[in-house]
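Hi all, a correction to my earlier message: I attached the wrong file for ABC-2 type transport system permease protein. Here's the right sequence:
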Amino acid sequence: MMLGALRGDRRDVIRRVIGVVLLVAATVVAAMSAAGLADADRLTTAVVSVLAGSAVTLGFAIGPPVTASIDPLDPRRFAVIGPEPRPLAGALILAGFLSVPVLVTLTLGVSLAVAWGAQGASAVASVASVVLGLTTCVLFARVSMALGALVQRPRQSRELVSVYLIAVLVVVVPIGVFLGSLEWRGAVPTQLASAAEILSWTPIGAAWAIGLAPTAGAAVGSLVVALATMAVLVLAWFALVRVLLTTTRRPAAVRERGGLGWFALLPGTPGGAVAARSLSYWLRDRRYIVNVVIVPIAAVVSTVPLLVAGVPFELAVLLPVPIMALFFGWLPHNDLAYDSTALWMHIASGVRGIPDRVGRLVPVLLIGIPILAVSLPLAIVAHGRWAVFPAMVGVCAALFLGGLGLSSISSVLAPYAVSRPGDSPFQQPQRTGSGGVVAQGLVMLGAMLTALPAGWLTWQAIGGATIDSVLALWVGVGAGAFVLVVGIGLGAVVYERRATRLMEFAEAT
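and the right structure:
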């Protein structure tokens, strides 16, 4: 299959040959630079190794779906010979090592191992680090391509391009802001060293941290994370191979019709249809647009009274992002009411609660995550201490995810009248009760209570306890994810039980 890439149209072959030559040249330069780390100090070598290895591993994980790559080792290509799923899955993992990107990664890994040896690393640790890192890259690529194969490839529409741009924005902007804020004074910045330390405990960076770990305990911890990551990826790959061999592909003709917008991009499932319809509303209905625009403005304006009251700037500048996270999680708390009489489509078609609840959260996630991902690094730069970045991520995650979970319950349990489609977003109808006010307040209060543990740890981290920063990250993400899952489940049950009353509400308002 690799040699087959050099056959076919002459222009295609020339482009491929040029690409391979450039890739080889870039690999040689990168390998020489990696080998040159032998003359650097141990900390610099370790930081560069972890960051470079994490970037390469992340590229293997997200590269195939972003570039819409066609997998030459797609398990369905071998279905005609009737193979057993397990032996085929194992053989394809071995075959995955025979590719140009993997050979390039192997070259870089060997160069890093040479530098590690010059820094006093043991040969066993260096070999284990390179082997585990390379295997993790191959497994990530296999699983990523298999997941992409399960979803019908959409056409390159404006919606798909916007999703790619958002993904790039979420990843590139925070990294660019972080690197641009560092002060290089002949040594590795402490912020960069902290980032490398965090990555050494993640699935994408653990394997590359074994070779030059600062302590034996850190090496064992990174080894455990790397082995656990490989085990999970192997199990996922074997399961995906079985699914691919026993699943019939849907015809692509229906999905290739033009003019469907988000409906052509998202999966043809009830949840996908709800998400596509919600995205169309959120990006076109001025009632939604006004809400999205007001959130960042209100968050920034909220810092003015604090500055006037004498709160230090480095503390006040951290407040807008959590406020935005709180309001973004709060926005869908009355989402059903904005559907008006169109709600009958969901109820009449028998959409279950889970697809409805999840689909309605997709627009908020697609809008809120990029804004928070760009705003938070800028706030940290203004604050001046990157050590509190993980803690702030935990607080924002708890507020955002907790608000979404509680909103999933509130929108079906206590909806209240809003401006009708086509009316001014600032025109509010008269309400006979206080249910709407209570629902709004409870969602906000619940989101703040969800983030309370992470907020307390973040305050400790701001005071200088850096160990609480990472703890705040996991506490915030865990609490937010728990409330989100529980909220979606309870909201789904309430939705199915109150379907008739929700329809009556929509008709009456």
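Sorry for the mix-up. The mean pLDDT is 80.
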